Amino acid sequence: MGIIIWLLIGAVAGWLAGNIMKGGGFGVLGNIVVGIVGSVIGGFVFGLLGFGSTSMLGSLITAVVGAVILLYIVSIVKK
What residue ranges are annotated as transmembrane (predicted)? Predict the structure, then answer.
């Protein structure tokens, strides 16, 4: 059951980050990938700042912030 929650958080985080960065969605699989990679980036950044998330909402916020950072870096590299 944990992997399903993990994938759902990744999909929602990727979709939210795509909307925040004006890129729209990337499809279900793309949103999951962006969200999961974003959660790793967000976890690293928040870990450096001394913050940790133990709740589902905290995990979603961490994943969205990381996914926005990821999409920002991708947009810079594309230019």
Answer: 28-49, 56-77
